[in-house]
Design brief:
The chain folds into three domains: about 30 residues, no CATH class; about 180 residues, Efflux pump adaptor protein, beta barrel domain (Elongation Factor Tu (Ef-tu), domain 3, Beta Barrel); about 140 residues, Beta Barrel (OB fold (Dihydrolipoamide Acetyltransferase, E2P)), CATH 2.40.50.100. It is of the alpha+beta class and about 425 residues long. The two termini are about 80 Å apart. The strands form three sheets. The protein has a six-stranded antiparallel beta barrel with strand order 2-9-13-12-10-14. It has a four-stranded antiparallel sheet with strand order 6-5-3-8. It has a two-stranded antiparallel ribbon with strand order 11-21.
Length: about 425
Amino acid sequence: MQSIGARCRTEFPPRICFRFNPHLVATFLLLVVFLTGAGCSKGPQEAPPAPAVEVVTVIQKDVPVYHEWIGTLDGLVNATIRAQVQGYLIKQNYREGDLVKTGQVLFEIDPRNFQATLEQAKGQLAAQQARWTTAKANLARIKPLADLNAISKKDLDDSIGTEQAARAAVFSAQATVDKAQLDLDFTRIISPVDGIAGLAKAQIGNLVGPGGMEELTTVSTVNPIKVYIQVSEQEYLQAGRDSGQKIEKLRAELILADGSIYPNKGSFAFADRQVDVRTGTIKVAAIFPNPGNFLRPGQYGKIRVATSIRKDALLVPQRAVAEIQGKYMVAVVGADNKVDMRTVKTAERVDNLWVILEGLKPGERVVVEGVQKVRPGMPVTPKALAEAPAKPEAKAEEKAPAPQKSAEPAKAEKR
């Protein structure tokens, strides 16, 4: 058998073949082994510590299911104040935004023309009363003569007709006086209700009256105050079935624009007589007490009503639920402190908690803080979630009751 070197020299030209040296090969192999051993001479590295996460236990309790509607606040009574006689405005007797009483004078119109008209009407009434007195006296003298046939029947009839015409003229003159007095009274424009007077839309010196400026101001009764909402036909029927009573008897909460809950609960006053065929909704009004006139017409808010109770619902904090590609995931820490990522089915939100329909069991631990740093099967160091210390309440004097701050409203959601 030929050696590797001899075979190379036989089959290939001398310039291509190198001389085979066994000692060189052995030296190369020893160098490779030495370098490999030097690279692996370090001891085995320690595994990184398990990350610390904060966990909470799944809560199980009965929770109310809420429905919410956007509402618009409006006065219980909104009286539009208009001038009923024409004249120049000479005085404004109220301050805009103040509470006014029934019968309080808000504006005054120049009364001189109306006073003169009243005096003229009274003069005409006096003249007609004098004519009536004369006619009655003439009739009283003629009647005995007519009984004696001393005068003709025609003279008697004329006297009776004159007396009746004079009496009718007196009644007409009296009506003219009453009308003139009424017009004079209308120069003092009063509030028909108790409430908050709005901005004046007429200035001193403006010519006001029928056919001119239509509105001087508006007075709104705001205690109690109404909230109008639009309820769909399906929601109206469902609320009545689930609660076992009519919607007018349900108790309602009012959530204001800043998210706070108005402290006084209200009740539904009435529902409109029919469903709007254009929108498929029915207009419903709720009444809320408003001491101190804290709420004003034109505000927006949410009406929240508990329509049913979900029994033995499973609850976890909302921040424990992560949405990944349209699915809701929760990191569950098992008894061996290893993480299991589960897909869950969610339902309503109740304050800062989320109702879980499927995917969890009572008593299991879910990760609240540190969800981003865990992976399926990863060991972790669970710690109970530390509750934030309560902040001291600021002391402030308020005339109206302070609304309570609301967390995420409890509402029914389709998931």
